[in-house]
Design goal:
Layout: E1 11-12, H1 20-24, E2 43-48, H2 65-72, H3 82-85, H4 111-121, E3 127-133, H5 137-140, H6 160-163, E4 168-169, E5 174-181, E6 189-191, E7 197-199, E8 204-207, E9 213-215, E10 222-227, H7 229-237, E11 243-246
Antiparallel strand pairs: 1-5, 2-10, 2-11, 3-5, 3-8, 4-5, 6-7, 8-9, 9-10
Length: 261
């Protein structure tokens, strides 16, 4: 497998201090909204990751969690957990539950939904910072090949200075930090040898003025947005996103879904 990362205008940041403010505003037990996206914003939204269409080819239009709830007899609400809604009442709930052999991606919003979200966050050229969890296997290159910038010679891995460089250390994850325009959030990902590009949501990204912050925690099947009331209202009202209002003290743990347990 060949993996290629073309980061466009994104540039690696050695000065990871640009993200230290996030750690100062995280709090609460891991799995709570405020442990993943900074506290202190006026409003928050939980964007549910799309569900791949079931079937032999998995190439149909993605489904919504609401579609699955209608099929299983479960209730969709702000703290709903996939493991609970994927099975009908009376069926044991397991951490790795699937519905008709599908489940939403974990830690990754997906290209279409990410494109929609970016359009709500601001102008394409909005200056932003992007933090990528250091543990993704394709970052390190073996047995993959990774390249930064489409015009560069393909090296066996990210430059040594990046792999050995400073990390933004937050309570639960360590991250590589980049800066660049908002539009290039979709440039993070990898291309397989057969030519398919897979976008990887930044683990965290935020406007340079800190007016909003987005988190796609690697263990969550939803992406969290913190920002102004107006921004969050736009996210919640988008017909192309399945989003629900949450607060920093809400639990997204498996046992946080008291409605469907």
């Amino acid at each position: 497998m060949i993996v290629v990362v073309d980061l466009g205008e994104l540039r690696w940041r050695r000065d990871v201090g640009v993200g230290e403010w996030i750690g100062e505003r995280l709090g609460g037990p891991f799995g709570y909204v405020g442990s993943v996206v900074p506290r202190g914003y006026a409003a928050y939204a939980r964007v549910l990751h799309p569900v791949p269409a079931p079937g032999p080819s998995f190439d149909g239009a993605p489904l919504r969690w609401a579609d699955v709830c209608r099929a299983t007899g479960r209730r969709l609400h702000a703290l709903a957990q996939w493991s609970a809604i994927a099975v009908p009442p009376g069926v044991p709930i397991t951490y790795d539950a699937r519905w008709r052999d599908v489940a939403p991606d974990v830690g990754n919003l997906g290209r279409a939904a990410l494109d929609t979200l970016l359009g709500l966050l601001g102008a394409p050229g909005t200056p932003c910072f992007f933090a990528l969890w250091e543990g993704f296997g394709w970052i390190h290159g073996s047995p993959a090949v990774v390249v930064v910038g489409s015009d560069e010679e393909v090296p066996p891995e990210l430059p040594r200075e990046v792999l050995d460089g400073p990390r933004l250390r937050l309570p639960h994850r360590d991250h590589i930090v980049f800066s660049g325009p908002l539009r290039d959030a979709v440039r993070i990902g990898h291309t397989y040898s057969w030519g398919e590009f897979a976008t990887q949501s930044p683990t965290l990204f935020w406007a340079a003025d800190r007016s909003w912050c987005v988190a796609s925690e690697i263990d969550f099947d939803s992406t969290l947005v913190g920002g102004s009331a107006e921004l969050v209202a736009a996210v919640l009202g988008s017909p192309d996103l399945e989003a629900l209002p949450v607060g920093p003290d809400d639990s997204l743990r498996l046992d946080g879904d008291a409605v469907n347990l």
